[in-house]
Amino acid sequence: MANPETILQNKILARHGARPNVRLWRNETAGAWVGKYLGRTPDGNVLIGSASHINAGLAVGSADIIGIKDGRFVAIEVKMPGKNPTKQQKAFIDTVSAMGGIAGVARSIADSDRILGDPKGE
């Protein structure tokens, strides 16, 4: 069964992503270890020599959904009710807002409408 946060993200993308003045994308971020493959331990773990950690995706703390609305950058951090963004996520949202972008935290479809405007009103 899908994660409730992922379900909400998909609903927001479906509701707002097809609007003629809006383009939205799911922003995946991750971290991984890379290096020389040395083999496996008896319990199945991978051994990596000269390992380095890399981050993938837009940036640490970047929003779950990014996009463009009417030429302005969009950043929506999706959280379930009762959950709060991390310091890095809050800083990303605040930076986008301060620089003229459209940004916020959505815990519901109504929140996404508040951030992007009600698609029925256009």
Word description of this protein:
A hairpin with a 5-residue loop joins β2 and β3. α1 crosses α3. This protein has 122 residues and is of the alpha+beta class. The mean pLDDT is 94.
How would you concisely characterize the structure shown here?
The protein is α+β, with helices and mostly antiparallel strands and 122 residues long. It has helices at 4-16, 87-98, 109-116, and strands spanning 22-26, 30-40, 46-56, 65-69, 72-78, 102-106.
Tell me the layout of helices and strands.
Elements: H1 4-16, E1 22-26, E2 30-40, E3 46-56, E4 65-69, E5 72-78, H2 87-98, E6 102-106, H3 109-116
Parallel strand pairs: 5-6
Antiparallel strand pairs: 1-4, 2-3, 4-5
Question: What are the defining features of this structure?
Answer:
122 residues; Trna Endonuclease, Chain: A, domain 1; alpha+beta; 2 domains
- Quaternary structure classification: single chain
Main beta sheet, described?
4 strands, mixed
Distance between the termini: 34 Å
Element-level helix/strand string:
HEEEEEHEH
- Could you say what the CATH topology of the largest domain is called? Trna Endonuclease, Chain: A, domain 1
Mean pLDDT: 94
The counted number of beta strands is: 6
Give the uncertain stretches in residue-range form: none
Structural class of the helix and strand makeup?
Answer: alpha+beta
